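Postdoc handover notes: sequence design on the structure in folder B. Input tokens:
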């Protein structure tokens, strides 16, 4: 439940990843997408793994059904030359849109205690937050 509610944990100390053989590297600016009207939008679903030097889609990795089509949901994406294009393609894919909607809906239901297993959720909450 916690993972769904809080979302991915980003290491904000990582501004840039290690350079690859072509001197390209991950940049934290990839977390921000500039819309066509110039507005900046955080891609909260995007996660960078320093250990693997790859980016992943949080909601597709967590909620995909079966083996997803894209690298972002499976082994991650490392080819930084094409990262911007891959992120745009992934973000508009039907699978991502569905997984993103599922994640947002589940997060909202957890906040409102409107899940099917709300009794179990209540018990977990009591264990986490004992009366002081």
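Designed sequence:
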């Amino acid at each position: 439940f916690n993972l769904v509610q809080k979302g991915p944990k980003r290491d904000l100390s990582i501004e840039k990843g290690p350079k690859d053989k072509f001197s390209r590297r991950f940049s934290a600016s990839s977390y921000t997408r500039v819309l066509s009207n110039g507005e900046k939008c955080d891609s909260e679903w995007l996660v960078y793994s320093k250990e693997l030097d790859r980016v992943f889609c949080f909601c597709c990795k967590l909620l995909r059904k079966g083996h997803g089509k894209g690298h972002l949901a499976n082994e991650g994406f490392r080819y930084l030359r094409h990262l911007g294009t891959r992120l745009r393609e992934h973000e508009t894919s039907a699978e991502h849109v569905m997984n993103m909607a599922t994640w947002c809906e589940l997060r909202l239901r957890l906040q409102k205690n409107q899940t099917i297993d709300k009794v179990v959720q209540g018990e977990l909450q009591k264990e986490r937050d004992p009366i002081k």
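Context for whoever picks this up: Helices lie at 2-6, 58-63, 83-91, 94-111, 118-128. Don't rerun without checking with the PI first.
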